[in-house]
Amino acid sequence: MKDDERPVEPLPTSDTLIEELDPHHGFFCRGARLLEAGRSRYQRYEVWDTPTFGRLFRLDGSLMSAERDEFVYHENLVHVPALCHPAPRRALVVGGGDGGSARELLRHPDIERVVVVELDEQVVELARRHLGAIHQGAFDDPRTELHIGDGLDYVRGAVAAGEVFDLIVLDLTEPGEGPAAALYREPFLADCRTLLHGEGALTLHLGAPWRQAEQVRALVQRLRTVFAIVRPYFMFIPLYGGLWGLACASERVDPQARSASAIDAELVRRGIAGLRYYNGEVHAGQFAQPNFLRELLA
């Protein structure tokens, strides 16, 4: 992913897909094939097929998700909060138009309702056409409710209506001045806190601490002004070029307090199998921070 303020580059004309992570470094994929590209009401989109990552999609020139490594992101974004809740039944995904977060939420046997609020209908249609390996039919599950619209408006309306959720997953594009900018600000986060019921928790991505240190620090500090418990956690995501941060925020739940054995036992109890990344030891280990992150997030 790249910073939103950077200009959108023209589509490449060769079979080499170049991802500039910042103005000074990036990576490339040779043998890439463009499957579809265009512009929606909100953003430019591309879907590529690559030898390394399989199918992937970009929005406004920034990589969003890829078949080969999306499980690292989606499993951690969903199961860290979900396994700390005794029986999550109602979940809200803001963003998540590729369907990966909904897919993981639907693994939990007590889930009755997964509301996906995606601003750009074209993203969902792209996923349906090209990214079946990611959503795996999640949009067609009867427990899934798809709403096309602004997540800010949906959450405000849900607060006014007295709705509650056990889990809120903010599966968004980067912070900045784009469509998602308001969804990282304190008023929206406070509305999300209002929607959380009991031992509910919210998760979102923070970014790359190597090249987005100030963004990561600022988001954690912002969460701490809204929620009683905020736990950042980190993992390596190849598509995003290195170490990547997520955070879990709650009024009651502390995911760092859950042991590896407790997480593994809960996975067995819920009958959740076939995960490719997340397990009890991974859960516990991701909250360990090297010294530079401790200093950044102090």
From TrEMBL:
Q: Which InterPro entries match?
A: PABS (IPR030374), PABS_CS (IPR030373), SAM-dependent_MTases_sf (IPR029063), Spermi_synthase (IPR001045), Spermidine_synt_N_sf (IPR037163)
GO molecular function list: spermidine synthase activity
Q: What is catalyzed by this enzyme?
A: S-adenosyl 3-(methylsulfanyl)propylamine + putrescine = S-methyl-5'-thioadenosine + spermidine + H(+)
Catalytic residue list = 171
Q: Which residues bind spermidine?
A: 74, 98
Q: Which biological process annotations from GO are given for this protein?
A: spermidine biosynthetic process
Pinpoint the PABS domain residues: 15-251
Q: Name the keywords, alphabetized.
A: Polyamine biosynthesis, Spermidine biosynthesis, Transferase
Q: In which pathway does it act?
A: Amine and polyamine biosynthesis; spermidine biosynthesis; spermidine from putrescine: step 1/1
Domain of life of the native organism: Bacteria
Q: Which Gene3D superfamilies match?
A: Spermidine synthase, tetramerisation domain, Vaccinia Virus protein VP39
What EC number(s) is this enzyme filed under? 2.5.1.16
Parts forming coiled coils: none
Q: How does it assemble?
A: Homodimer or homotetramer.
HAMAP family listed in its UniProt record: Spermidine_synth
Similarity comment text for this entry: Belongs to the spermidine/spermine synthase family.
Protein name, entry field: Polyamine aminopropyltransferase
The organism encoding this protein is: Aromatoleum tolulyticum
Organism ancestry: Bacteria, Pseudomonadati, Pseudomonadota, Betaproteobacteria, Rhodocyclales
